[in-house]
Design goal:
Elements lengths: L24 H15 L4 H15 L7 H12 L3 H10 L1 H19 L11 H9 L6 H11 L1 H47 L9
Helix pairs in contact: 2-3, 2-4, 2-8, 3-4, 5-8
Length: about 200
């Protein structure tokens, strides 16, 4: 006589499932958005876009507003906030030179003579307008714009003309580089995993 198949065993009863904890207002409105801003945009394409858009915003020819522009750009395009803000700080020494370049280009576009003024000397410009920027940012920026409104206007126009060509060039230059870095890191991690000794289990 053949053995009859055993009847399926009934699943063991589980204890009552606890309802998920309600998330607090702090978590929903403060913590979660901050975590999302710090961790988003870490694919090779997003990092390349962060370099392209972030450097363009960091070189905007008005001092004191680039951090806000970088923050808003990362918010809109879902870029990585730490990377774009670090890039903004690293490009500060280049900012003055790019500003002066945009001033000269803008003056040529408007057909006005190059201004022979104090602002064309970067060190004297910094000493006059931005030496006390961190203690009095609004006053420094207002003083600078009041004295140099025409040159600032020329520089913004030049920046706006250059940016549509600048951003794609930086993006398509950085994208293969970022993909290569990610590929190398993946290969290194795979080699480490392959060469890692098997886990040892204690004898019961």
């Amino acid at each position: 006589m053949e053995n009859s198949p055993l009847p399926p065993t009934a699943p063991k009863p589980r204890g009552p499932l606890l309802p998920p904890r309600a998330r607090t207002l702090w978590e929903r409105r403060v913590r979660d958005p901050i975590v999302m801003q710090l961790t988003q945009g870490i694919t090779p394409e997003k990092i390349a876009l962060t370099f392209a858009v972030g450097s363009a915003c960091a070189l905007f020819p008005i001092f004191g507003v680039t951090s806000l522009m970088c923050f808003l750009a990362a918010l809109v395009w879902r870029l990585n906030q730490p990377i774009i803000q670090i890039l903004n700080q690293l490009l500060f020494p280049v900012h003055v030179m790019v500003f002066l370049l945009c001033v000269h280009l803008g003056e040529r576009l408007f057909g006005v003579p190059v201004a022979e003024r104090l602002m064309l000397d970067p060190w004297k410009m910094h000493e006059k307008y931005f030496e006390a920027f961190w203690s009095h940012p609004i006053q420094s920026l207002t003083f600078f714009l009041k004295d140099n409104a025409d040159s600032v206007t020329y520089s913004i126009v030049a920046w706006a003309i250059l940016v549509p060509a600048y951003v794609p060039v930086v993006y398509y230059t950085m994208r293969p580089l970022m993909r290569g870095i990610v590929k190398v890191k993946a290969e290194v991690a795979a080699k480490k995993a392959a060469n890692a000794p098997p886990p040892t289990h204690p004898v019961p």
